[in-house]
Amino acid sequence: MSALQGATVLVTGGAGFIGSHLVDVLLDRGAGEVRVLDNLVNGTRRNLEDLDGDGRFALLVGDIRDEDARRAALAGAEIVYHLACLGVRHSLHDPVENHRVNAEGTLAMLGSARDNEVRRFVYVSTSEVFGTAQYAPMDERHPTWPETVYGGSKLAGEAYARAFHRTYGMDSVVVRPFNTYGPRSHFEGDSGEVLPRTIVRLLAGHRPLVYGDGEQTRDFMHVSDTASALAMLGTSSGVAGQTINLGSGTEVTINELCAAVAAAVGRPDLVPEHRDPRPGDVRRLLGDPSVMRSLTGFVPQVDFREGVAELVSWFRSSPVSTTDMLARVEDVNWLARAGTP
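That's the NAD-dependent epimerase/dehydratase family protein sequence above. Prediction below.
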């Protein structure tokens, strides 16, 4: 029997893009109860609507910084997946709040998880802790020189998770996903990612926007693969105290991404419009996935171009019009919005 079978699991940030897919996988693999703690700032109830009526699922609307919310969410939990955070572009216009949620919030979650004697704590970090690649592929010992407060705050969370393992013996594992994409990915506001934003623009008949020369590279993994890998790390043996990259080991430039989207949309004439580089932009990311493979046997299943075509189809099937979606895309989504301090 799987160690996940019948377990009580908490996913912070579980109403978000990756978190909601992880919840689906955990339930599919036999978890007894999956709770989500999410303040719905970035996440949405819509991502979890298919779970309405499933007695094994519960959404708790609350903030990880609130002690009462943590206590309620953690009661009886055996496995914790900690994904709740504010993103990279948010950190460019509100670095203090970004730090408070990502670093201080993680420290608070670790303390409460220890008090509740959870069996395993999976801290979901990010490849942004590395900054730009100094060599590639980037293994787990690659230097960490984050370009943004987001990367710095997530690195602080990593340090806390490792410290709780070494100081208190907590069974914690740090995982660094590279660039996840797929259905439910964010295109709007300061959460908007390059791939869904590009899809929305092309579906609306607009050229993609590229900041800089477009030769920046990323290591993309489909969300179904990311969620599957994260689920494995909640129960795999030999991973306690480890820091593990989660990437495909394949490098894609932003120019290549735009070409793949244009082909999937059927608009090869919509070539990129280049603008000034974005502040804090990482130049190169390419992960070395060998540690994850050796510890768990995990191998990604979804080819990038196939995944892009699937995501285009998903956006096309949306009940929201492309015009309405485009209106929610912020071209310069790293600046403070009106009314934002």
